[in-house]
Write a structure and sequence with these properties.
alpha+beta
């Protein structure tokens, strides 16, 4: 794999603007980085086909309004009854799994329970995530009630996380302003203690990062999702954060009471281990939606960043049998561009948007029943995606060969 520099780094790679010939009915020619491409119009929407290598950092020849127009109108409609049906389904499965595990209380059964229940905790998180985006329903009160119920149950401060996640969506793909799995600048990376680097870039430690992120965010960023006075939040948002922190504390109190009633070991088996599996799911999925593609994807700064270009750096993933269980969270590109679309319309919306996106949409590798293939992408990315250059408005991940234990020139 070749490491590519930013346009201001002095490396051979350059990032020129798109030059398009005069618009013609049915399409035209354009050049990106001096390479010819063909621009076509399909059903009134621009598509791009490459005659040579595709440069994902090149400004797209379409606008976000064209993507929006390609998506069927009914995909934007939110059905609260349908959303509630998913909540009821998932809650019934959660309590059914717990009842079955306690009933059998067998060490052959417990590991299967932990994986299944942790996966269902993750499904509950995704529904709460939809509440936070407002894609659950058009009723903010309904969204907030169920968002608190779902997220508090799995120890997530609903409003605190909702607000920081909104920041992530508004600044996706921006080196400094993004919020989730943000790339470290080279200068910041060099200041990290070796133990911090080890915990962040050595599997399996990054898979348990989420609780620490909630408490103290990412390296180089200050604040807590539980503190209403954190710089994460505006003064007008503090009362919402305080409400969510109180709900989180109530859940902690309920768990402490449960440990007194059933014993700490039983609580660990029924709730604690599934919670860790849920955290692993969350970290794996959210990481792979922004990292680990076969082709290095750009991060932006300054004038090169736009909402559209940042959103196009996200990656869809196929999770096999788990797609339906965790509510098609793998259809991430369109979700990032249009978070108001309900999860049950994302697949259809994505198919419609492909006509516009062309090569800017990266088709996910098809999964078997279990998405074991994703671990290869995960491990490879964690081993080699360490920091980005301090300069340049278009940058790509670089590798600390000492940390990885091998030379970047040997990467395949």
């Amino acid at each position: 794999m070749v490491m590519v520099g930013s346009k201001e780094s002095g490396n051979e790679a350059t990032w020129s603007n798109v030059e398009t010939s005069e618009a013609k009915e049915g399409g035209g020619l354009m050049t990106v980085n001096g390479k010819a491409r063909e621009e076509k119009t399909v059903n009134g929407f621009h598509t791009v086909t490459d005659e040579d290598d595709f440069d994902p950092s090149a400004p797209p020849p379409f606008k976000i309004a064209e993507i929006r127009a390609a998506i069927p109108k009914h995909c934007w409609v939110k059905d609260p009854l349908r959303s509630l049906s998913y909540v009821i389904r998932d809650i019934l499965v959660v309590f059914g799994l717990a009842a079955a595990a306690v009933r059998f209380d067998n060490w052959v059964v417990w590991p299967f329970y932990w994986i299944a229940q942790g996966t269902m905790f993750w499904a509950l998180f995704v529904l709460g995530h939809d509440c936070g985006h407002g894609s659950f329903s058009d009723n903010p009160k309904l969204n907030n009630v169920f968002g608190h119920l779902l997220h508090s149950f799995i120890l997530v401060p609903y409003h605190g996380w909702r607000i920081s996640h909104r920041t992530h969506h508004q600044n996706h793909g921006h080196v400094e302003n993004d919020e989730s799995w943000v790339p470290l600048s080279e200068k910041l990376y060099k200041t990290l203690h070796v133990s911090t680097k080890f915990l962040r870039f050595k599997v399996p430690f990054p898979l348990f990062a989420y609780p620490f992120y909630l408490w103290s965010r990412s390296p180089g960023k200050k604040g807590s999702h539980f503190n209403p006075n954190s710089g994460l939040f505006l003064p007008s948002e503090r009362r919402y954060v305080l409400t969510s922190t109180m709900c989180w504390c109530i859940m902690i109190a309920l768990l402490l009471c449960a440990s007194i009633v059933v014993g700490p070991v039983q609580l660990l088996k029924v709730y604690g281990v599934p919670y860790l599996v849920f955290v692993m799911w969350l970290d794996i999925v959210t990481y792979l939606h922004h990292h680990g593609h076969e082709q290095k994807l750009p991060w932006y700064r300054g004038k090169e960043w736009s909402y559209l270009r940042g959103g196009l750096t996200t990656v869809d993933r196929d999770y096999g049998w788990f797609n339906n269980i965790h509510h098609d969270i793998g259809t991430h590109v369109i979700h990032h561009l249009f978070p108001q679309i309900p999860h049950y319309h994302l697949i259809e919306a994505t198919e419609a948007a492909k006509l516009v996106l062309g090569k800017y949409y990266r088709e996910p590798k098809k999964s078997g029943p279990f998405p074991f293939h994703l671990f290869r992408y995960l491990v490879r990315s964690i081993r080699q995606d360490h920091f980005v250059s301090d300069i340049g408005d278009i940058v790509f991940y670089q590798t600390d060969a000492k940390l990885s234990g091998f030379s970047p020139s040997k990467m395949d």
